[in-house]
């Protein structure tokens, strides 16, 4: 089976885009994601070959978003 998922994040789209620009968007040949910025919203379009690849990609994205969120609170 193939899986897709969309994650939309409202907030500091410039910062989020810059942080994810350095990231590898292909994950273990089983998943990948594309990033689209529109105004203050960043959308992640995830595609995976299986549920494990989907979970890995989503975990990768959300871990980085958590770090961004925590850094913003410190500022």
Keywords, please?
75 residues; 4 strands; alpha+beta; four-stranded antiparallel beta sheet; 35% strand; globular; single chain
- How many angstroms does the end-to-end distance come to? 43 Å
Would you count the extended β strands for me? 4
* SS content category: alpha+beta
Kindly estimate the percentage of residues that lie in beta strands according to DSSP: 25-35%
The SSE order reads EHEEEH
| Radius of gyration, whole Å | 12 Å
Instruction: Profile the largest sheet.
Output: 4 strands, antiparallel
Question: Portion of residues in helices?
Answer: 40-55%
The rough form would be described as: globular
Strand order, main sheet: write it out.
Answer: 1-4-3-2
Count of helical regions: 2
The low-pLDDT segments are none
Average pLDDT for all residues: 91
Could you explain the architecture of this structure?
This protein has helices at residues 13-21, 51-74; strands at residues 3-10, 26-27, 31-38, 41-48. Strand 3 and strand 4 form a beta hairpin. It is globular, with a radius of gyration of 12 Å. It is of the alpha+beta class and 75 residues long. The mean pLDDT is 91.
Concise account of the structure shown:
With 75 residues, the protein is α+β, with helices and mostly antiparallel strands. It is built from two helices and four strands; from the N terminus they run βαβββα. Helix content is 44%, strand content 35%.
Outline the secondary-structure elements.
Elements lengths: L2 E8 L2 H9 L4 E2 L3 E8 L2 E8 L2 H24 L1
Antiparallel strand pairs: 1-4, 2-3, 3-4
């Amino acid at each position: 089976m193939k899986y897709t998922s969309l994650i939309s994040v409202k907030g500091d789209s410039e910062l989020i885009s810059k942080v994810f620009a350095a990231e590898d968007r292909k994950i273990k040949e089983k998943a990948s994601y594309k990033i689209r910025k529109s105004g203050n919203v960043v959308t992640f379009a995830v595609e995976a070959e299986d549920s494990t690849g989907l979970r890995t990609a989503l975990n990768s994205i959300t871990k980085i978003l958590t770090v961004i969120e925590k850094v913003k609170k410190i500022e």
